[in-house]
Amino acid sequence: MFLSKTYFKKLTTLSLLGISVLYFAQEKAQVEQANESNLRKHITYLASDELQGRLTGSEGETKAANYFSAEFKKLGLKPYEGKEFIQNFEYSVKLNPHDDQTSTPIKGKNVIAVLDNKADRTIVIGAHYDHLGLNEHHNSTLANSAGQIHNGADDNASGTAAVLELARMFSQNKTKENANYVFALFSGEEDGLMGSKKLAETIKTTYPNTIFMINMDMVGRLNDKKDLTVGGVGTSPILPELVKKHKPEGFNLALDESGVGPSDHTSFYLKDIPVLFLFTGTHNDYHKPTDDSDKINYSGGTVIANYVFDLANALGNEKEIPFVKTKVVASKSVPKYKVSLGIMPNYADSKDGMGIDGVIDNRPAANAGILQGDVLTKIGKCEVKEVYSYMDCLSKVNAGEEHPVTVKRNGEEKIFNVKF
Ligand SMILES: [Zn+2]
User: Fold this and answer.
1) Do residues 397 and 307 share a domain?
2) Mean pLDDT score of the chain, rounded to an integer?
3) What PANTHER family does the record tag this protein with (predicted)?
4) Based on the domain organization, do 7 and 70 belong to the same domain?
5) Among 16, 36, 67, 155, which residue has the least CB neighbours within 10 Å?
6) Cα 269 from Cα 263, distance rounded (Å)
7) How confident is the model over 349-399, as pLDDT tens digits?
8) What residues flank ion ligand 1 with Cβ within 5 A?
9) Contact predicate 189/156, CB 8 Å
10) How far is the CA of 53 from the centre of ligand 1 (A)?
11) Percent of the chain, pLDDT > 90?
12) Host domain of residue 46
């Protein structure tokens, strides 16, 4: 039997007290299981006011990054590149919505560790840890929330904590896995997947045998029905069966094929790497100062971390994971919007309209009376089938124009006059 170093040390110390047998039994049962109190500890710290909402480029971001580095070091993991776990990157944001010309440079930090099992394949397990700070970058869904701390407990201290816990589980696992694991904590996600883009650019140079990426973004609000969205299942033909096979008991999985979505797995999918994306769904506190740690379902998060552990192990044992493109993006350049509706689109595949996951206060959709849960079918005469045609329709509207917007509400068609 293989004994990990930490285990051996503990065992020796405790043998002196004559209770080694008891300790051994407990240890065997506990290892490889996600620990709820670890998740609670990480999330409580990351979503505390001390970190000021972890805005990319802020002091709070640095504090979080140092916390991760210390955790990874404690686990004996090696840095992804160089001697530090931190990977720096830069981008710029337009901070004034009325000024299209001036952009401000932002410096972000990914924190990335590697468990090198000398395997012939590498799997990335990631989550973003940045959030909205005091709404300096205008990503809040609450009007006039500048200056309020957006703690981001679900978005995405929850996914971050799961990655830290998985790093612990894999590095203390007694059976050696058939894959190397890269544990990646991204920053710059809220400004447009900036950190994950940086890692996705170099991953195949640093680890040419990278075969998969698993992303967790907002996994802290598992509801009573245990609904879990699993995205990216269309990016390899082996995935639909694999995710169902390891499904935790009582869970309802909503499978979404697309490799493109509102989070960091998209960056890897666009580099032809198959992906999975786990998400417990949106809620009223999304991107608001009220996304706090007391609203997290910690036992649910623990089950999800165990699920990812099983999936990441199973993926390491697969003979082949062929990559499949799930969508053809019509043009390389993203359409430029002059207007916005102020809603959160549902990214799930559909043909007969796009679900609205959230409505932002004081924006055109909300002002016209459109509600969360409505299904958007038309903007003017332009038909909305899913998120892609939605973006297309939106790009045709000019600021100041007024258009009838059609939605389905409880199966009934309703038309609202929206002033853009
Ligand atoms: Zn977010």
Assistant:
1) no
2) 88
3) METALLOPEPTIDASE M28 FAMILY MEMBER (PTHR12147), PEPTIDASE M28 DOMAIN-CONTAINING PROTEIN (PTHR12147:SF26)
4) no
5) 16
6) 11
7) 667 899 888 888 788 999 999 998 899 999 999 999 887 788 878 878 888
8) 155
9) yes
10) 11
11) 68
12) 32-317
